[in-house]
């Protein structure tokens, strides 16, 4: 795991030697028709209220300055774009799943992707998409039910969207299905240690003030499960790596304000709709006491899982046949002697 990297929330004094990272304002674009509702009822296989998530993202996209809260999305979108650039080829047609305002496309160009289809559940995100030289088509659709034919795309990318999907195995199967043979999926999603400071502070405050607690941070997938889920969906040549980003805020209330501005408020069915004022003040004090920095700010940790998976094609490299090795592992200690004999 890479060491945690620090970002500084816009508006917070930045220590000398640290830079601010946040998204630049985008331009307006046309929106398509709204998607059919999904995730309409709670259950073991539907932990998230997808209608509510669409409303949250639509509200965030219509804020007067939506880019102010998109520093994290821009940073992770850049990480996904870097992994696309590592592949020495041009992709004629690509799909950005849960594209938002174009956090991946702004870091790429037409030499890498000739045409891009951007898909999101919230239609308002397409009204102010970021500048990009790549020709794009905007489609409003649910990530859980893709409206595309099999073997359509050469590349599928996704950044900070799939953690709100109710059926992640099905979503991976759909991505695999719309990819052409030898196509690649490159994605990023939040991991299980995301916002552990906020989660612990709220739980301790609720236990102290109300005698119990309910979940206020949505559940996240474990890194040990990602490779298995991708493999079951049909992907091969898998790569899964983790990163941690710490963003520093003036306090707990600014953390929650920016999460709302990102469209990342909790939409779990079992969420508690209201927090008492005393509980919130206690949580803010606990957050500062347990995790506060020396300058008075507080950190919020975001764990990011990056994943890469390929759809099978005959031209791809294959592992050697079992038993075809000509040198035993036990002979590695004698490798110098073996080389001299040859």
Describe the protein's architecture and organization.
The protein has 342 residues and is α/β, with parallel strands linked by helices. 28% of the residues lie in helices and 19% in strands. The protein has an 8-stranded mixed beta sheet with strand order 1-7-8-6-5-2-3-4, sandwiched between helices. Helix 3 links the parallel strand 5 (153-159) and strand 6 (179-190). Helix 4 packs across helix 7 (277-291). It starts with a strand and ends with a helix. The model is unreliable at 13-40 (pLDDT under 50).
Q: Quick recap of the structure?
A:
Helices cover 28% and strands 19% of the residues. With 342 residues, it is of the alpha/beta class.
Provide the succession of SSEs.
Answer: EHHEEEEHEHHEHHEH
The overall strand count is 8
Poorly predicted runs of 5 or more residues = 13-40
Name the beta content range: 15-25%
Biggest sheet character: 8 strands, mixed
Averaged pLDDT, please? 82
Query: What integer value in Å does the Rg equal?
Result: 22 Å
Beginning-to-end CA distance, first to last residue: 40 Å
Q: Into which percent range does the helicity of residues fall?
A: 25-40%
- Computed structural class: alpha/beta
SS element count, helices:
8
């Amino acid at each position: 795991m890479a060491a945690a990297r620090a970002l500084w929330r816009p508006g917070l004094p930045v220590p000398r030697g640290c830079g601010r990272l946040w998204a630049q304002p985008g331009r307006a674009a046309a929106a398509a028709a709204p998607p059919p509702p999904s995730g309409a009822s709670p259950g073991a296989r539907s932990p998230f209220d997808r209608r509510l998530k669409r409303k949250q993202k639509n509200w965030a996209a219509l804020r007067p300055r939506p880019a102010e809260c998109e520093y994290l999305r821009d940073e992770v979108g850049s990480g996904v774009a870097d992994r696309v650039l590592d592949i020495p080829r041009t992709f004629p047609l690509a799909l950005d799943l849960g594209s938002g305002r174009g956090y991946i496309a702004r870091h790429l160009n037409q030499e890498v992707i000739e045409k891009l289809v951007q898909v999101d559940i919230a239609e308002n995100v397409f009204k102010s998409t970021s500048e990009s030289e790549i020709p794009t088509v905007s489609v409003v659709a649910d990530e859980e039910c893709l409206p595309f034919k099999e073997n359509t795309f050469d590349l599928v990318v996704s950044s900070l969207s799939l953690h709100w999907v109710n059926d992640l195995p099905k979503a991976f199967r759909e991505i695999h299905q719309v990819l052409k043979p030898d196509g690649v999926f490159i994605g990023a999603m939040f991991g299980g240690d995301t916002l552990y400071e906020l989660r612990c502070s709220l739980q301790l405050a609720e236990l102290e003030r109300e005698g119990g607690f309910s979940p206020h941070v949505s559940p996240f997938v474990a890194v040990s499960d990602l490779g298995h889920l991708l493999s079951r969906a049909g992907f091969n040549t898998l790569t899964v790596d983790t990163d941690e980003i710490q963003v520093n805020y003036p306090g707990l209330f600014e953390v929650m304000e920016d999460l709302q501005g990102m469209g990342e408020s909790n939409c779990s069915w079992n969420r508690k709709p209201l927090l008492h004022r005393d509980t919130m003040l206690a949580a803010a004090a606990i957050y500062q006491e347990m995790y506060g920095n020396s300058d008075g700010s507080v950190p919020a940790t975001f764990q990011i899982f990056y994943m890469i998976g390929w759809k099978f094609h005959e031209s791809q490299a294959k592992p050697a046949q079992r038993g075809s090795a000509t040198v035993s592992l036990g002979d590695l200690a004698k490798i110098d002697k073996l080389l001299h004999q040859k």
